[in-house]
Amino acid sequence: MRVLIEADELAALLDDVTLLDVRWKLGGPPGHGEYLQGHIPGAVYVDLDTELAAHGAPTDGRHPLPSLEALQASARRWGVRAGRPVVAYDATGNTAAARAWWLLRWAGVPDVRLLDGGLAAWSGELATDDVVPEPGDIELRGGALPLVELDDVPKLAERGVLLDARAGERYRGEVEPIDPRAGHIPGARSAPTTENLAPDGRFLAPDALRERFAALGADGSRLVGVYCGSGVTAAHEIAALAIAGVDAALYPGSFSQWSNHEHLPVATA
């Protein structure tokens, strides 16, 4: 599974891909304003909060997966068509765009890639229009990538490798700015998403990523699962693992779901 596309390759294929701008920041503001200030020509703006997530009770987590029907309607709005590659990017090292990458791959779209380095890697002209493409015809099916439900997380942590993609201080319980309890899921190993990237915002080379994840026990010999705060940056870690040649399952509810179930334990050591 090829995960990345380089900016020069994208420039040569620009008329032959569906391009998604997924700029988003935790706590906002929404990225549409930044999109209108300048985006790669032809890119459609994707709203992560409303199109790449559902919303329910706190015990569901902050960004539950959208229904397949809702995701298909959004993907068709973006112009996603059968047989046409999709490329997603953002301006934060693909930490948000990876959510679109994971969802579309999970939903059965075979060729979805991330622009390595995101918007900063693009040296061509920028557009300021609000792109409304011809509606797509994609038929989504779901289940093409593995995921882990709440009840199965403890077993995975015990028998496999469970990675926590949040910042180390949140994993250790030193700070918790969002969720009701501080700490991590017992048995999880700290693997901050930021360490997937080089200083220029591009993913580390495959060999470097393999070495990083092997040191955490994620060498492909056991089932690997990943969570973060709400299932967004965990998708970035799954992309990094895929680059390294390691398959991994997403726990979509992540710590925002886990910590809202008061009977579930939380560790700080």
UniProtKB/TrEMBL annotation:
Residues of the Rhodanese domain: 13-131, 156-267
Domain of life the protein comes from: Bacteria
Signal peptide location: none
InterPro entries: Rhodanese-like_dom (IPR001763), Rhodanese-like_dom_sf (IPR036873), Thiosulphate_STrfase_CS (IPR001307), TST/MPST-like (IPR045078)
SUPFAM superfamilies documented for this protein: Rhodanese/Cell cycle control phosphatase
Keywords in alphabetical order: Repeat, Transferase
Protein name in the entry: Sulfurtransferase
